[in-house]
Amino acid sequence: MKSRSFLLPHIFGKIGLAILVPFTLLGLFIMFTGGSDIAFGRFFSATGNYREIESQILNNITIIGLIVGLIFASCSREKYEDEMISAIRLDSLLIALYISSLLLIVAVLCLYGNNFYEFLIYHMFILPLIFLITFKVKLWRLNKGGEDEE
What we know:
Blueprint: H1 11-33, H2 36-41, H3 49-74, H4 83-110, H5 114-149
């Protein structure tokens, strides 16, 4: 019996990484510099509420880019998908869920007010990011171990 798979085609993994890298850099830029004033300050001379709208647009574009890049990169098939890859995928997902939940519990206990809300914004990306990292590391170890046996 053939199982249903909701994974994206293999090419989406490369597209996802190509989307993920620039939007991660943009997100880090915004996080550390407040980005919207620097990014839009040279091109727009708007004052008042327009600056807030520009900031929201930049934030929304960054968040959407990060989500699309993470989903494409983490939910795409591997070139050769088999039961071992499926087991690694499930194991990586469980590890990511455990780490994400643990971080959320620690944040609930330690962070308050705006710091907690800021953490929640970053927490949107923690689960797929940890999944992607653990999955790729486990695949790399599997492929490295397979080359040593030959």
